[in-house]
Amino acid sequence: MNLPTSIPDALAEWLPLIGAALVALLLAEIAFRLGERIVRRAVSASPTAVALATAMRLPARMLIYLLAFNAVLNQSPPDLVWLSNVERVSTLLLIGVLTWLLASAVNGMAAAVIEANPLTQADNLDARRIQTQTQVLSRLAMGLVVLIGAALALMTFPTVRQVGTSLLASAGVVGIVAGFAARPVLGNLIAGLQIGLSQPIRIDDVVIVEDEWGVIEEITGTYVVVRIWDQRRLIVPLQYWIEKPFQNWTRSTSELIGTVFLWLDFRMPLAPLREALQRACEMSEHWDKRIAMLQVTEVDQQAMQIRCLVTSASAPAGWDLRCHVREYLIDFVQREYPQYLPRHRAEATIERHGAAPPSAKTSKATPVVTGGANEMEASTRRPA
User: Fold this and answer.
1) How many beta carbons lie within 10 A of that of residue 19, not counting itself?
2) Is residue 64 part of a domain?
3) Tell me: the pLDDT tens digits for 216-247?
4) Helix (H) or strand (E) segment spanning residue 279
5) N or C: which end of the chain has fewer CB within 10 A?
6) 33 located within any domain
7) To which H or E segment does residue 307 belong?
8) CATH code, domain carrying 279
9) Taking the CA atoms of the chain, what radius of gyration do you get in angstroms?
10) How far apart are CA 338 and CA 320, in angstroms?
């Protein structure tokens, strides 16, 4: 075959290989389309498999192209110009696509598991456990895949291998320095594994951390995002959850017992108050009908403390229920028994001029002086 004289000799040597590569890519495209149809029919009954196949579609297509190109490249003459450079680039691309494929498979599987276990149901304890494990372990797996892929890509360069060999003699010192430098990273990695396996916290858990009430919104490879009740976000390192105490209101169940405290006068009858508490709970959709109890828990010189115990199915519902019960009972006391609101008592003794001697008979009158929320019982001494 006579080629134009304007084409360089090196490029002319590559023309047959390029033609064979184009044919191989065309065959690879046909094979990919046939395989895609077969895979779609095979996984159509499983949503998890469908999500996994969708996530892996594009990297799998690129992998088939590269495999077809490498098959042609392996049949090329060994003395071909630039062959070593093309092979190295092809190897790097192959490693990159394999890393992409594995990372996409992990991400697709995690997305499928999370979608199959939504948090919208009322009792979502199992869903929160599964989502937490899936997110933490999938991120760790993706990080490991990327790390291995990058290491394999660097190993294709001879200079990198030589540098690694030369540093092997001083590996002890380098290891100590690297250990100190990477201590936060390794600590978070180990903490992430502990959280993923032991699960002291889960996605959508209600926690109190650093005196803030919030919900676990996201668990990453280095920190946890807590959504505070007023829509702020608290960023907490992973190691914090392993090393420091915190409150988890939904560790084993989302059901909670809420408390409502009231201070009332000693003379307040308790039976009507218990009936009012029962009515308040029955009026609220947040009460789960387990407990509605009223007790006197403390008494001091001025009033008595009333504690109401009410139960709910979740922490948000418990908060709304407590507010509703508190408002209802305050309104009930103000409307039915306003005289039994807390009062400050004091007794004042007034001596009048010209009072009789102590031996004389006296009579005591105790008029009541009332002002606002205070009540004063005044006693006067008068001559007999």
Assistant:
1) 11
2) yes
3) 988 887 889 999 988 899 999 888 888 888 98
4) helix 270-283
5) N
6) yes
7) strand 304-312
8) 3.30.70.100
9) 39
10) 25
Domain containing 365 equals 344-352+361-383
Number of structural domains found in the chain: 3
Which of 5-14, 127-136, 141-150, 167-176 has the lowest average pLDDT? 167-176
Residue matched to tokens 């308040």: 280
Tell me, yes or no, whether 110 and 14 share the same domain.
yes
Asked whether the predicted pLDDT for residue 334 surpasses 50, the reply is yes
Q: Is residue 185 part of a domain?
A: no
Residues 224 and 210 sit within 8 Å (Cβ to Cβ): no
Residues 48 and 81 in one domain: yes
Q: Is residue 145 part of a domain?
A: no
Give the Cβ contact number of residue 141 at 10 Å.
17
261 Ramachandran zone, left/alpha/beta (phi>0; psi -120 to 50): beta
Measure CA 59 to chain center. Answer: 30
List for the chain the helix, strand, coil content (%; round to 5).
55, 20, 25
Tell which of 52, 82, 116 closes a domain: 116
Q: What is the dihedral of CA 305, 311, 315, 317, to 10 degrees?
A: -100
Where on the phi/psi map is residue 141: left (φ > 0), alpha (ψ -120 to 50), or beta?
Answer: alpha
**148 token code pair:** 């291995």
Looking at the chain, the number of H-run helices and the number of E-run strands are 10, 12
Residue whose entry in the numeric block shows the structure tokens 């979740």:
314
What sign has the CA pseudo-torsion 144, 150, 151, 156? positive
Cβ(308)–Cβ(281) below 8 Å? no
pLDDT digits (tens, 9 = 90+) for 72-88: 777 777 667 677 777 78
Statement to judge: residues 61 and 110 lie in one domain: yes
- 334 and 375 part of one domain: no
Q: Do both 53 and 69 map to the same domain?
A: yes
Q: Which of 95, 116, 137 lies at the terminal end of a domain, its last residue?
A: 116
